[in-house]
Design brief:
The complex is a heterodimer of chains A (187) and B (408). In chain A, 39% of the residues are buried. In chain A, strand 1 and strand 2 form a beta hairpin. Helix content of chain A is 25%, strand content 26%. Chain A is built from five helices and seven strands. Chain A is of the alpha/beta class. Chain B has two domains: 4-49 and 343-403, Enolase-like, domain 1 (2-Layer Sandwich); 62-336, Cytochrome-c3 Hydrogenase, chain B. Helix content of chain B is 48%, strand content 14%. Chain B has helices at residues 54-59, 63-71, 78-93, 99-127, 131-152, 172-198, 200-206, 214-219, 224-228, 236-239, 245-251, 264-287, 338-350, 358-364, 390-403; strands at residues 14-18, 30-36, 39-46, 161-162, 165-166, 305-313, 316-324, 330-336, 374-378, 385-389. Classes of the chains: A alpha/beta (187), B alpha+beta (408).
Chain lengths: 187, 408
């Protein structure tokens, strides 16, 4: 197991402070305001200009989004990307703060055996379609979604089959080769 | 029930599903419109009839294979997907590409925007029954299509970008040819701008139709010309420039095209003027193109990284969220095409308008509209169905507008 730990290379590339002052300023403001919602590990300013990634507690997503909407007018919603991390499933909520021209991503990890977190579709109506899509492709349930319906998959698609999860089909053994998520258990 | 006196006169509410599919065309969508008489009171958008699971396929492909897969996502704006995926991989690898490659890539994007906007303009003219302008504008679109074919070898799937640069160079002869083409195109676009704004045939059909007020547009995160037609400053070329947009925006010669009208007319004006701006941008790119190599070698194994690549496609902001894992294949690749965000505002645009205006409102966000080719009209009371082709609906719409020349 220790070999695997050593081999694991981080996919987070924090930026140096000079050249990214605006991003660091924003991130520090957010960290100060939302101390108990943010997990420090995985929260950083990316090397690519104007990108911030923030890791949050899944049950606090509504607090975070409401605060950001009120304080920064973060009205421009981009999308939600689901991700399969093995034991965890991840949902990345991408937003843009247009006044500061910074794209900010809130990531939340939910357990694979209980993939649930509160919805934000009532706060951000633009998220309605994509949250439904993430629910059916990854099986991440947004509790309290106002309009649950099938978006992408056929109507006769079997329940409990989530095609974008890595274990749904692993034809070429990609998970075994992955150096970020590590080898999958039992393979 | 049998008495003739109990005949239903006017059904109070009728639901009209438009769509969902046509076997020959891509991106089918279904729009369920509830109408009261001629007024649309509710609209529901259904998508997902053509989910091809490109993201899942992409996870099993190498980055180089994905470049060509990405450009097949959309036939009209294939250069944007192709180029944006290439720049996402380059961001992840932290690779710098040669200056000339950046300029050529940006040039292809802008040419793509020109042909896409002229295509939309033709479709819009067609939807309001102004077929002369439709045919003229598509004739002039051939100028830019020929340019694209000249420099990339293909009319549609250009595939110019590759990881680390572009695949083909632009010679001096081609540059001269293109500059001549831009002069012609600019003259024609100025004509279409005047047609769109001053010609009553077009203007009366789009003025005040499909209103999307700025607060609603903000709430539904409208992007691209749909958002800019409502006065939102959403243009990635200005807000988050990459490639050759960085030196281009530093000159300060270009400005974001905005309209605060919020109706279909606003979106049309934004698109037409943006085309002229795109011609100027292309000319600037050609005249300031530096010499040098066009491709840098990038190792196929990309270091673990996560990037959010943004790019302004003709229809709005295009996102490629790419997570790499140290192999030559992506760990996760998420594509958000601009039309996806505009669906949410669509329902609001349709509400309160006339059924006869539905074709132009649906066309106004510039979806790949050709999918909505068949219409089922369901009678709300006795649930009889009749099939109407979209062509017939268009003819009926135009007839209705002829009989009702001015709304109040």
């Amino acid at each position: 197991m220790s070999d695997i730990e050593a081999e694991k290379i981080t996919e987070h590339h924090p930026a140096p402070r000079e050249g990214h002052e605006a991003e660091y300023e924003l991130l520090e403001e957010i960290m100060g305001d939302l101390k108990d919602s943010i997990i420090e590990e995985g929260t950083y300013v990316h090397k690519q200009p104007r990108r911030i990634f923030v890791q949050i507690h899944p049950e606090k997503i509504r607090n975070v989004v409401r605060h950001m909407l009120d304080k920064y007018e973060m009205w421009q919603f981009i999308t939600v990307s689901g991700r399969d991390l093995g034991d965890d499933l991840q949902a990345c909520y991408h937003f843009v703060i247009n006044d500061r021209k910074i794209a900010i991503t809130f990531r939340l990890n939910v357990r694979r055996n209980k993939p649930e977190h509160p919805t934000i579709s009532d706060l951000v109506p633009a998220a309605e379609f994509i949250e439904n899509e993430v629910r059916e492709l990854f099986g991440i349930v947004q509790v309290g979604h106002p309009n649950v319906r099938r978006i992408e998959l056929p109507e006769d698609w079997p329940a409990n089959e989530y095609p974008m999860r890595k274990d749904w089909e692993d034809l070429r053994g990609l998970m075994k080769k992955s150096r970020t998520t590590g080898p999958k258990e039992g393979v | 029930m049998t008495s003739a006196g109990k005949r239903i006169v006017i059904p109070p509410r009728v639901t009209i599903p438009i769509g969902p599919q046509h076997p020959a065309l891509k991106e089918p969508g279904m729009f369920k419109l509830t109408v009261e008489g001629e007024h649309i009171v509710d609209a529901v958008v259904n998508i997902g009839y053509n989910h091809r699971s490109i993201e899942k396929i992409g996870e099993n492909n190498t980055h180089l294979q994905n470049l060509y897969l990405a450009s097949r996502i959309c036939g009209i704006c294939s250069a944007t997907h192709n180029g944006n995926y290439a720049q996402a991989v380059e961001f992840a690898a932290e690779a710098e590409i040669p200056e000339r490659a950046k300029f050529i890539r940006t040039l292809i994007w802008e040419l793509d925007r020109i042909h896409s906007h002229i295509l939309w303009l033709g479709v819009a003219f067609h939807e309001v029954g102004f077929d002369t302008a439709f045919m003229l504008s598509w004739r002039d679109r051939e100028i830019v299509m020929d340019m694209l074919e000249n420099i990339s070898g293909n009319r549609i799937h250009h595939d110019m970008s590759t990881i680390g640069g572009v695949r083909r160079n632009i010679s001096d002869v081609q540059k001269e040819q293109m500059l001549r083409g831009f002069d012609k195109l600019e003259e024609r676009m100025a004509f279409y701008r005047d047609v769109a704004i001053h010609e009553k045939t077009f203007w009366n059909r789009v003025d005040g139709v499909g209103m999307l007020e700025a607060p609603i547009a903000k709430k539904t995160s409208a992007v691209g010309p749909t958002g800019r037609g409502s006065g939102l400053k959403v243009d990635v070329r200005f807000n988050d420039p990459t490639q050759a947009y960085i030196p281009m925006m530093d000159t300060g010669d270009f400005e974001m095209i905005l309209s605060d009208r919020g109706d279909v007319a606003g979106r049309a004006v934004v698109r037409v003027i943006e085309t002229i701006e795109a011609i100027n941008m292309s000319r600037w790119l050609l005249n300031n193109m530096p010499d040098g190599p066009i491709r840098e070698r990038v190792r196929p194994r990309i270091q673990p990284n996560e990037v959010l690549a943004r790019h302004e496609a003709p229809r709005g902001e295009l996102i490629h969220y790419l997570v790499t894992n140290g192999t030559n294949k992506p760990d996760r690749w998420k594509v958000r095409a601009p039309t996806y965000n505009n669906w949410t505002s669509m329902a609001h645009c349709l509400r309160g308008d006339y059924l006869a205006d539905a074709p132009i409102i649906l066309a106004a966000i510039d979806p790949c509209y050709s999918c909505t080719d068949r219409v089922v009209i369901v009678d709300g009371n006795d649930e009889t169905m009749r099939l109407v082709s979209l062509d017939n609906l268009r003819i009926e719409s135009n007839k209705w507008h002829k009989e009702h020349p001015r709304r109040e």
